[in-house]
C-alpha cells in the first residue's frame, strides 16, 4: 500500500510536457509580438502626427512674425524700410527705427528673412547689435516661399530697384505635412498680405 501511494503521488506531481511548454511559449511570443507591433505602430503614428502639427505651427509662427516685422518696416525712417539689395522673391530685408532714436542698433531694427530651399527652412537673420548677429531657423519642411511686392495701384513690382515704392507685400508659404494614420501626405499653403504701415501712400490706400 505504501508503495502504491508513492507511485500515485509521483505521477500526480508531474509538470508540463515539452510539447505543452513549446505551445505555451509559442502562444506567448505571438501575443507579445502582436502587442509590440501595435505599440510601435501607435508610436509611429503619434510621431508623424506631432511632426505634422509642429511643421504647421512653425510655419504659422514664422508667417506671423514676418508679417509683423514687414508691416513695421520703415518706422522712423524716410521710406518703407525695404533693403532692395537684400530682398527678392525668396528673401526680404526690412529696417525700422523702433525706439525712434535715429539709430539702427537694436536686434529687431534690421532683419532679413531667407528661404533656404536646399534644407527647406525659413531663416531669420539679424546683423544687430553690431558684433552679435543672430541666425534663427523659423520653420522647417517648407517647400516654397514667394514674396511679391505691390505698389499703390496694386501692381506687382518686378524691378527690385523699385521696391522703395512698395506699399504692400504678399508672403506665400507652402509646408509639407507627412502621411499619418491613413491620411496621405499633403502640402498646406499659407498666405499673408501685409500693408506697409509706413509707406508713402499707405494711409490713402489701406
3D architecture notes:
With about 210 residues, the protein is an alpha+beta fold. The protein has helices spanning about 1-10, 20-70, 200-205; strands spanning about 90-95, 110-115, 120-125, 135-140, 140-150, 170-175, 185-195. The protein has a four-stranded antiparallel sheet with strand order 1-2-3-4, with helices on one face. It has a three-stranded antiparallel sheet with strand order 5-6-7, with helices on one face. A hairpin with an 8-residue loop joins strand 6 (about 170-175) and strand 7 (about 185-195). About 20% of the residues are buried.
Short key terms for the protein model shown above:
33% helix; alpha+beta; 4-stranded antiparallel β-sheet; elongated
What is this structure's SSE topology?
Elements: H1 2-12, H2 18-71, E1 91-95, E2 110-116, E3 121-126, E4 134-139, E5 142-150, E6 168-177, E7 186-195, H3 202-205
Antiparallel strand pairs: 1-2, 2-3, 3-4, 5-6, 6-7
Brief digest:
33% of the residues lie in helices and 26% in strands. With 206 residues, the chain is an alpha+beta fold.
Order of helix and strand elements from N to C terminus: HHEEEEEEEH
Distance between the termini: 111 Å
Beta-strand fraction estimate: 25-35%
The computed structural class is alpha+beta
Strand order of the largest sheet: 1-2-3-4
Give the biggest beta sheet: 4 strands, antiparallel
Can you give the helix content as a percent range?
Answer: 25-40%
Q: Shape from CA axes? A: elongated
Low-confidence stretches: none
* Rg value: 32 Å
Mean pLDDT across residues: 85
Number of strands: 7
Number of helices: 3
Amino acid at each position: 500500500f505504501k508503495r502504491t501511494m508513492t507511485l500515485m503521488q509521483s505521477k500526480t506531481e508531474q509538470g508540463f510536457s515539452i510539447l505543452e511548454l513549446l505551445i505555451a511559449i509559442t502562444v506567448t511570443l505571438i501575443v507579445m509580438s502582436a502587442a509590440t507591433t501595435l505599440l510601435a505602430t501607435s508610436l509611429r503614428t503619434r510621431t508623424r502626427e506631432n511632426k505634422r502639427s509642429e511643421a504647421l505651427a512653425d510655419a504659422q509662427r514664422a508667417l506671423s512674425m514676418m508679417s509683423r516685422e514687414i508691416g513695421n518696416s520703415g518706422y522712423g525712417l524716410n521710406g518703407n524700410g525695404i533693403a532692395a539689395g537684400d530682398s527678392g522673391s525668396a528673401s526680404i530685408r526690412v529696417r525700422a527705427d523702433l525706439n525712434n532714436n535715429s539709430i539702427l542698433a537694436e536686434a529687431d531694427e534690421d532683419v532679413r528673412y531667407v528661404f533656404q530651399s536646399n534644407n527647406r527652412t525659413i531663416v531669420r537673420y539679424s546683423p544687430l547689435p553690431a558684433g552679435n548677429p543672430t541666425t534663427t531657423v523659423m520653420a522647417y519642411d517648407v517647400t516654397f516661399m514667394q514674396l511679391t511686392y505691390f505698389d499703390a495701384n496694386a501692381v506687382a513690382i518686378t524691378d527690385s530697384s523699385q521696391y522703395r515704392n512698395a506699399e504692400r507685400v504678399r508672403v506665400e508659404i507652402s509646408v509639407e505635412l507627412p502621411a499619418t494614420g491613413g491620411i496621405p501626405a499633403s502640402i498646406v499653403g499659407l498666405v499673408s498680405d501685409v500693408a506697409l504701415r509706413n509707406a508713402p501712400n499707405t494711409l490713402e490706400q489701406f
